[in-house]
Design goal:
Number of strands: 0
Strand content: under 5%
Structural class: mainly alpha
Number of helices: 13
Distance between the termini: 20 Å
Largest sheet: none
């Protein structure tokens, strides 16, 4: 499994794709946080990264599928997946290695944003920030990326066309992240099962962790979604 993870990491950073992904994430968030008039933190007036954690999920929603779209689809297209099967690895180990390599890429994407914390703390009047809320938000952001990674990897396993994998995984991520929230607001569900429908969505649990409180129910939810999509991926590989 670790050999698969190492191979995919080397392949990702062997060209400009990996570096462009990191720069794109930092550039988009940096523009919204420090440059654009209606969203920058200077106009907000408070030493907080709430705007970053509101924007970052939407950037990840398209960035993660762009990273995962070639994970399995290119293996099918080039015929190298058959070579993977000749190794003494189970399908769970193959998928696990690819999944861990993408999580490592996500860490490379998220860690540079710690500079935002230093910037906010420096600019604050008293030099203090909500450390608990920011820590919880970063944990929630990583868990969110982990779910999007599982979804993207799953969608990549159903086609040998990377563009199709990107489009489908972006749609599924959007649906899982915001779909249940939107569904719960329909007049038909208001003052009824709307709360329970909203709980099915990723957005609900992401916002819950972002408050700085690690609830076991949120952690179980994210772990369950990741396991579900990885299980679907493995089952799909067995069919192939």
């Amino acid at each position: 499994m670790w050999s698969i993870c190492k191979k995919d990491l080397q392949q990702f950073f062997s060209n400009l794709t990996g570096y462009i992904a990191i720069l794109l994430f930092l550039l988009v968030n940096g523009l919204f946080l420090f440059v654009l008039k209606d969203s920058n933190i200077f106009d907000f007036g408070y030493a907080t990264l709430d705007k970053f954690f509101d924007l970052a999920p939407w950037v990840l929603l398209f960035l993660v599928p762009a990273i995962t779209m070639r994970s399995l689809s290119d293996e099918f297209r080039t015929g190298t997946f058959e070579l993977l099967l000749t190794r003494p690895l189970t399908k769970w180990q193959i998928i696990g290695g690819k999944y861990l390599s993408i999580l490592a890429v996500l860490l490379f994407v998220i860690v540079p944003t710690f500079l935002y914390i230093i910037t906010i703390k420096t600019l604050s009047v008293h030099g203090s920030i909500d450390a608990g809320g920011i820590t919880g938000s970063y944990i929630g952001l990583f868990l969110l990326g982990a779910v999007f990674t599982a979804i993207g990897l799953c969608c990549s396993g159903f086609t040998n066309n990377a563009v199709v994998a990107f489009l489908v995984s972006s749609f599924v991520c959007l649906l899982a992240y915001f779909g249940f929230n939107a569904l719960s607001r329909l007049p038909f569900f208001v003052n009824g099962p709307d709360y329970y429908i909203e709980m099915l969505g990723i957005d609900f649990h992401y916002r819950s962790i972002s408050r700085g409180v690690l609830d076991s129910r949120d952690l179980v939810y994210f772990a369950s979604i990741v396991f579900l999509f990885l299980l679907i991926t493995v089952k799909n590989l067995h069919k192939k």
